[in-house]
Amino acid sequence: xxxxxxxxxxxxxxxxxxxxxxxxxxxxxxxxxxxxxxxxxxxxxxxxxxxxxxxxxxxxxxxxxxxxxxxxxxxxxxxxxxxxxxxxxxxxxxxxxxxxxxxxxxxxxxxxxxxxxxxxxxxxxxxxxxxxxxxxxxxxxxxxxxxxxxxxxxxxxxxxxxxxxxxxxxxxxxxxxxxxxxxxxxxxxxxxxxxxxxxxxxxxxxxxxxxxxxxxxxxxxxxxxxxxxxxxxxxxxxxxxxxxxxxxxxxxxxxxxxxxxxxxxxxxxxxxxxxxxxxxxxxxxxxxxxxxxxxxxxxxxxxxxxxxxxxxxxxxxxxxxxxxxxxxxxxxxxxxxxxxxxxxxxxxxxxxxxxxxx
Length: 358
Hints:
Blueprint: E1 4-11, E2 25-32, E3 37-41, H1 48-56, E4 63-68, E5 71-72, H2 78-81, E6 83-86, H3 98-107, H4 113-126, H5 142-154, E7 161-165, H6 173-190, E8 193-198, H7 201-207, E9 210-215, E10 218-223, H8 225-230, H9 235-240, E11 247-250, E12 252-260, E13 263-271, E14 278-282, E15 287-290, E16 295-296, E17 298-304, E18 308-315, E19 318-325, E20 336-339, E21 344-348, E22 351-353, E23 356-357
Parallel strand pairs: 3-8, 3-9, 6-7, 7-8
Antiparallel strand pairs: 1-2, 1-4, 4-5, 9-10, 11-14, 12-13, 13-23, 14-21, 15-20, 16-20, 17-18, 18-19, 21-22
Helix pairs in contact: 3-4, 3-5, 4-5
């Protein structure tokens, strides 16, 4: 297990980067705790896999250092970092049986056969392949091969870190839930430092202790699922986390009031003079339709998703999403929307502004 320190880390695939825009991974300075489970979350191309490959040693960064437990491993090969990595697409030895595939990392390190047999049986049970241990990998489907890859990554107890690069892409939906649960149980039992790359917010939020949200090569927030939901530090986090995502509406903010297209809204905190692009951000869960107060809106459609309803409304060209209870009345006279002031966030140039208690 290892504490992982990213010190002034950045990477460009260009030989002579001239500006920040030339960097696929913009400067990072973070310490990731020993034994914690992290998820790297973001859209395709945001730099997740680049960062993971730097941590694993498959890529040498253009600048900065990476340390495992205060030891500089920036230029150390993967084999010297004592990590296990599972890739998006299955990597298995086709001519070997499932049993021998799972046993390979342990035998390669000279473990006793009694230990190998016990651990292989345990991992096979975890990934649901006990009945297939004697089958050759060559004839298996992509999802079964990926389960072998996962199992081989988890079979060693002594690794510094377990790295997963979108490992459940080819796994069927039901098995995804089971394997995520098993990965979480493995983490709780052995305390490995785990880093899990995904573009799926459900995978990230259910797996990780802390989620690292990336956007355009930059880490925009590291936090617990609750922190990401309640206080997104960047508008991208608000948009990317949640279904539907956070409503972001351009506004003028003065003290503890927001002014939007001539309508005044109360805020729970006070703000000084803000420069640049100013907006408020409100989760659909904290918006309510009203017949008498709030922003004037036009309800475009109502989506009944079983446990609640999602109301899609329009306000001066901006779509506003509102979540209502399954039994809440949605009348023709309800043409305004109000927000819970305690859950209205204020942003300047897409970054959260803290404000002061009003």
